[in-house]
Amino acid sequence: MSEKPNDGPERTRLQRLLDTLKAQDITDKKLLHALEYTPRDLFVPELFLDRSWEDSAIPINCGQTISQPYIVALMTQALKLEGRHRVLEIGTGSGYQTAVLSRLARYVYTIERYRSLMVEAEIRHKRLMLENIIYRFGDGWEGWPEQAPFDRILVTAALPEVPTPLLAQLKPKGIMVGPLGKGSTQRLMRYVKLQGDDFLKEDLGEVRFVPLIAGVAREN
Ligand code: SAH
What we know:
The chain has helices at residues 9-22, 29-36, 69-79, 96-102, 115-127, 164-167, and strands at 58-59, 65-66, 86-90, 107-112, 133-137, 150-155, 170-180, 186-193, 199-207. By secondary structure, it is of the alpha/beta class. It has a domain at 67-207: Vaccinia Virus protein VP39 (Rossmann fold), CATH 3.40.50.150. The strands form two sheets. The chain has a seven-stranded mixed β-sheet, covered by helices on one side. Strands 1-2 form a two-stranded antiparallel ribbon. Strand 3 (86-90), helix 4 (96-102) and strand 4 form a beta-alpha-beta unit. The chain binds S-adenosyl-L-homocysteine.
C-alpha cells in the first residue's frame, strides 16, 4: 500500500503542494499521509506531467479532468472517513481521488460512464497495489443499489439537481459530498443523513466541476 514518493525535485514539489494544502485548513493527518503516498504524476497525461504537483485541475482523456489537489483534499476531509467505511464514488475519472479514498476506507465502490477511463484507472490502482476498489461501468446517478447502503458517498461531477437516488443509498448518519448546480460553477454540498429522510445540509463553497451526464458514454 505504500509506494514511497519520489526523491529529489519531485519530493520538493510534493512537499510544497502539501504545505499549500495545510495552509488552507487541510489538517487531517491520515489524509495528508494518503496524499503523500499517492503519486499524482501516475494519474496525469504525459503531456502535462510537469504540472503533476501544481495545485490545479488538469485535462485527462475523454474531455474530463483530474481534480485540483486542494479540492480532492477538501472533499475527502469533509467526508470524515473512518477505516471501516464502505464508500461509493461517482466519477472515477483518472482514479486519483479513488486512490486517496482507498487508503482511508475499507472498500471503495467507484462508477464511471467512460469505459476507457475506468480501465486506465484500474491499471494505475493495480500498479499501486490498491486492492480494495470495486469498479462499475455505468451511470452513477442511479448509485449502486446492490451494494447499498454506504457509509459515505462522494460525487466528483456536477449534479444538476439534488440526487435523491444517491441520498437514499446512505446509511443513517451517513455523509454525502458533491458539487450541486447546472452552471459553470457549482456549490460544494455536504448532506448528513439524520432520522428517516431528514438531512443536515451544508454549503462548503464554490467549486468548478465537469457536469454529471446521464447514461454511459459511447466510445470508438
Ligand atoms: N475524481 C476524478 C474526477 C474526474 S472528472 C479525478 O480525480 O480524476 C468527473 C468524472 O465523472 C468524469 O470522468 C466523467 O466521465 C464522470 N461522470 C460524469 N457523469 C457520470 C455519470 N452519470 N456516471 C458516472 N460517471 C460520470
